[in-house]
Automatic annotation (TrEMBL):
The lineage of its organism: Bacteria, Pseudomonadati, Pseudomonadota, Gammaproteobacteria, Cellvibrionales. The keyword Cell inner membrane does not apply. It comes from Gilvimarinus xylanilyticus. Residues 422-633 form the Beta-galactosidase trimerisation domain. Residues 645-697 form the Beta-galactosidase C-terminal domain. One of its GO terms (cellular component) is beta-galactosidase complex. The keyword Transport does not apply. It catalyses: Hydrolysis of terminal non-reducing beta-D-galactose residues in beta-D-galactosides. This is Beta-galactosidase. One of its GO terms (molecular function) is metal ion binding. The active site is at E179 (proton donor), E330 (nucleophile). Its EC number is 3.2.1.23.
Length: 703
């Protein structure tokens, strides 16, 4: 194989995949983290209320079983009201009181809301969007983190906080910023553009190489220097795909470096672990962002109809830092809300189900936004534990319920850890940037974003009952037997080398539609239709074309299939390659859309077009099941729809299943004989156990 023959050296330039740290991030740590409690936390803003309220807040929190507060993320102006005049005394006093009460603290760096003095009469420090509009002071994320003065001021306040509070006994963790890039995407400020030119020079070395890799004689976009390369502001039509994708990756690398620099300052003065609260939809490179953080956390505000978002995000962020529990850092007590909008209120019991699910799936922390309803600002309609007038909110009793549930579940979870899945879906931040530049051809029922495509495959695995995970492109493949990689336009040599080793050892890799169709710089491969993937899959891609709306069909497993999206029409090009699904069209006679190649002890499966409709959905389910059975994966859970099963292993090696009902209808879980109730130790009678609406049930399986 050409790839394996050349695999002793990497490509001439570093890929967007951060190869050097991927294996390290995926490997289990030398000293596994031992969780000793479940965190039941709340986001707290003492700077907005009278000092004397702190004491009664502590009393109320103790009643509810709140054992942690998160503070500081929006308090820059409280700590530095005038430039250079910094005091953290107020927060030290607050932390003293909470420490005395036995309540821990996560302190946030306050960089999401820089104070007015930083930007007043300094418009060059403000964020500029893709339309060239300069955003003014207000809300948050309104500055350019690329501006030297902004970084200098940010690092000054962070250093002061870390020096003063980094050794406080109440402190158990740090959070970098808050929801980086949740409101804005790429920065087009003058400072960002200058940084862009430096980044390009570091990446390509010479402008001649950039011109070659981007093919800049297209439309006479040839450049004589890096300074001539524009940021992709609005243009009469569209920019070169290479430029647009590179600008996204540049911005996401730089925001991760901003996080890295904050971590470096904090670690000089504090040993407490550091995280950041993110969301798959935010404009960051998630894999790169977490590279230098100690544990993963995410925010989620799902309604009772959107609970599957918790399953997906927990599967994703559990895998982000292997061996370390993740946190859900923000969720609503009753409903989400901001000026002009609010979401549907949670039904009774749903909040406790949320918490049960997060804890069971590998979470250590479950935290609310926020403690007391804000009396001013843009989020005054948002629910909180207490109202502005200091009365229990409509969600107060639900928080009480979470507190009771946490006490019941804690002994089981601190003595166990999540079972490592045997099947995973790949998440590629490079793929996401490419698809944002070049949206996928699709019909109206197909996801229009990369995240949706990954979730589509994840949901199929979940609904089939298999324990699963979402692993970053650079992660190790330890513990896996089956890897599904959907819609990854560029497949790097580094990624393929790890996959080849995985397959040769007996794994199965299913490369999904859209994979391999683009080069590293968002160009078209010139050696083969799917780049290096052709060689690994043992095929030649004869044609690549969009199928949506063409009426072109395919045949596989006795089914006639319709398609959506782009297709690579394949021909078997190796003796070990079998054709499993053929295209039925005069335009591409004798070509396939599904092939299988044996490689070592495993297989490479290439699905080069996405089957659509009910028949297509059934076909994809059967395809996953076929290979899962062939690999003899652990049997799927036999569980009613709307109930999630989280498998764990305790310190004695016993298997533990925790089932949580999320649809409010109650559920049923089939059990092997000999199962016992995990709390009481009593033998469970019958072949199944029921789970109450929004309830949970823990069972120990026989050895």
């Amino acid at each position: 194989m050409k790839l394996m023959a050349s695999a002793t050296g990497m490509a001439a330039s570093a890929p967007y995949v951060y190869a050097g740290s991927g294996a390290a991030r995926g490997a289990q740590p030398a000293s596994p983290y031992q969780m000793n409690r479940l965190v039941h936390g709340v986001c707290y803003y003492p700077e907005l209320w009278p000092k004397e309220d702190v004491d009664r807040d502590i009393v109320e929190m103790k009643k509810l079983g709140i054992n942690l507060i998160r503070i500081g993320e929006f308090a820059w102006s409280s700590m530095e009201p005038q430039e250079g005049n910094i005091s953290t005394r107020f927060f030290r006093d607050v932390m003293d009181k909470f420490h005395d009460a036995g309540i821990s603290v996560v302190f946030c760096t306050p960089t999401p809301t820089p104070p007015r003095w930083l930007t007043y009469n300094h418009p060059d420090r403000l964020f500029v969007n893709a339309d060239g509009e300069r955003l003014i002071h207000g809300a948050r994320q309104h500055v350019s983190y690329e501006h030297p003065a902004v970084r200098e001021a940010s690092f000054r306040i962070i250093k002061a906080i870390a020096q003063d509070l980094g050794d406080h006994p109440a402190l158990v963790g740090w959070q970098i910023d808050n929801e980086l890039k949740c409101h804005v995407a790429e920065d087009f400020s003058p400072a960002a553009v200058a940084s862009w030119h430096r980044w390009l020079k570091e990446r390509f070395g010479t402008i001649e190489r950039l011109n070659e890799e981007w093919g800049t004689h297209i439309w006479s976009t040839y450049y004589n220097s890096f300074e001539q390369v524009p940021a992709p502001f609005k243009t009469p039509f569209l920019h070169n795909a290479s430029l647009s994708t590179a600008y996204r990756m540049f911005n996401r690398e730089r925001i991760a470096e901003f996080s890295d620099q904050q971590c470096e300052i904090i670690r000089q003065y504090s040993k407490a672990p550091i995280t950041h609260n993110t969301n798959p939809a935010f404009s960051v490179n998630h894999e790169r962002l977490f590279e230098n953080l100690d544990f993963a956390s995410y925010d989620a505000y799902p309604s009772s109809e959107q609970w599957d978002a918790l399953v997906f995000r927990s599967d994703m962020y559990r895998a982000a830092k292997p061996g370390r529990p993740f946190w859900l850092m923000e969720t609503s007590v009753a409903h989400n809300g901001w000026l002009g909008n609010h979401t549907v209120m949670h039904p009774p019991g749903y909040l406790a189900a949320e918490a049960s699910l997060v804890y069971a799936m590998g979470g250590e922390g479950f935290c609310y936004w926020l403690w007391r309803q804000q009396r001013t600002g843009a989020e005054i309609p948002h629910s909180a534990v207490l109202s502005s007038w200091y009365k229990p909110s409509i969600g107060y009793s639900q928080v009480e319920q979470v507190g009771r549930m946490r006490q019941q579940m804690e002994p089981l979870l601190v003595n166990s850890q999540p079972l490592v899945p045997e099947i995973a879906v790949t998440w590629s931040d490079h793929a996401r940037a490419m698809i944002e530049t070049e949206p996928m051809d699709k019909d109206e029922n197909f996801p229009d974003k990369y995240q949706g495509v990954v979730q589509l495959w994840h949901k199929k695995i979940f609904e089939l009952g298999y324990h699963r995970e979402v692993r970053f492109e650079g992660a190790a493949l330890d513990g896996l037997k089956f890897l599904i990689t959907p819609a990854m336009p560029y497949v790097s040599e580094e990624f393929l080398q790890r996959v080849i080793e995985f397959v040769k050892a007996g794994g199965i890799w299913l490369a999904g539609p859209g994979t391999g169709m683009r080069g590293r710089e968002h160009s078209i491969p010139t050696d083969s239709g799917l780049g290096l993937l052709d060689d690994v899959a043992g095929v030649s891609a004869e044609y690549v074309f969009p199928l949506t709306g063409t009426g072109i069909q395919g045949k596989a497993d006795g089914k006639t299939l319709d398609f959506t999206g782009w297709c690579a029409a394949l021909k078997a090009d190796h003796a070990d390659t079998r054709v499993l699904g053929t295209l039925e069209t005069e335009l591409a006679p004798g070509t396939a859309f599904l092939t299988e190649r044996r490689l070592g002890k495993g297989k490479v499966v290439l699905l080069s077009a996405h089957p659509s409709g009910e028949t297509g959905e059934q076909f994809l389910r059967e395809l996953i099941q076929r290979y899962a059975r062939e690999l003899q994966l652990r049997p799927p859970f036999e569980v009613s729809a709307g109930t999630v099963v989280a498998p764990r292993v305790d310190q004695q090696g016993r298997r533990l299943w925790i089932a949580v009902n999320m649809d409010g209808q109650g559920g049923r879980l089939d059990l092997p004989s000999g199962a016992r109730d995990a709390s009481s130790g009593e033998a469970l009678q019958g072949s199944s156990v029921t789970v109450a609406p929004y309830g949970w049930k823990a069972v120990v399986l026989p050895s």
